Amino acid sequence: MFDNLTFQQFCALDYKRNMVVTAGPGAGKTRILSHRFCFILLNDDSISLPQILTLTFTEKAAEEMQTRIYEMLNRLERDLKDNPDSTLWDRIHEAKEQFHKNRISTIHSFCAGLLREYPVESG
Predict the structure, then answer these.
(1) What integer pLDDT is reported at residue 68 of this predicted model?
(2) Which residues pair with residue 103 across a beta bridge?
(3) What is the pLDDT of residue 3?
(4) What interhelical angle do 59-79 and 87-97 show, nearest 10?
(5) Contact 54, 4 (CB under 8 A)
(6) Rounded to an integer, what distance in angstroms lies between the CA atom of residue 121 and that of residue 86?
(7) How far apart are alpha carbons 31 and 35 in whole angstroms?
């Protein structure tokens, strides 16, 4: 899944630091952020899907990213179907079950959710 990445794209998978990805239309921002999301899920068992916050500028990009990530998880699950005892398979299965709790949205949607969740604190 991570084989067809350029060196720069592979470096963007480093989840030990925060990152902003900027590039022109069609440059692969959604693709690399989707890969990064899955890379985090699969490489750090202390992190679960609802703990990963992914923000984009447009609803279209957020929806596309959700679709891509879910498809990547499906593909990985299929690839590991012959080895269901694998810890990785368990993590993928858990992520798919929790997918409705994903925090992939636009910046505006995320902020509106915070205001709804904490109306008193936000004044």
Answers:
(1) 93
(2) 53
(3) 66
(4) 140
(5) no
(6) 44
(7) 6
Place of tokens 């692969």: 28
Question: Residue 33 class from Cβ within 10 Å (0-12 exposed, 13-18 middle, 19+ buried)?
Answer: buried
CA dist 10 → 13, 84, 86, 107, 122 (Å) = 5, 28, 25, 25, 38
What is the reported pTM?
A: 0.80
With a cut of 70, which residues of the chain have pLDDT below it? 1-3, 84-85
Residue 54 β-bridge partners = 104
DSSP H helical segments within the chain, as ranges?
A: 7-11, 29-43, 59-79, 87-97, 107-117, 119-122
- Residue 21 confidence (pLDDT): 73
State residue 1's pLDDT score: 63
Residue 82 and residue 41: Cα distance in Å, rounded? 21
Amino acid (one-letter) located at 23: A
Spatial neighbors of 91 by CB under 8 A, at least 6 apart, are 41, 42, 45
Type of residue found at 31: R
Handedness of CA 113, 45, 39, 21 (dihedral sign): positive
In this predicted structure, what is the pLDDT of residue 101?
Answer: 92
